[in-house]
Structure formats: C-alpha cells, structure tokens
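Hey, resending since the last one bounced:
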Amino acid sequence: MLNEQQIRDIIAGVNTNLDWATQDKNVTFAELGLDSLDRFDVLLGIQEATGVEVPDDDVESLSSIAAIEAYFADK
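The structure tokens again:
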C-alpha cells in the first residue's frame, strides 16, 4: 500500500518543475501540466514501488495523487 507521501516522492522524482509537497492531492496531473510521458513515468514508478501491475483499463483513472492513493488503498 502506498501512502500519500510516497506517491508525492515518486511524482517529484519524475517532474521537478513543481513543489509536490504543496500541491493539492485532488488536482489532476493534466491541470498541473504533466504530459503523457510524465504520467507514464509516474505509473512505472508506482508499479515498481508496489509490485502491482496496473491494467491498461485502469491507467486513465490514476490522474491525481488522491486517485492513486485510493486505487492502491486495497492492493
């Protein structure tokens, strides 16, 4: 299970343009300007950290810190 800080750390490793510690966890990555490559890298980092492969059908739903946190809450 990932906690919010772990998710923020993974994202900060992918995209250093923002201070991820201060971003609202409900704002979407698109709203923050993350492109598709950034989102792909975040997904890879999340999968590596959890050992859980995210099915293609679920990838689009992982669009914010809160969404990732909720998705992995029961994994």
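The CA atoms of residues 1 and 73 lie 6 Å apart.

Sorry for the duplicate.
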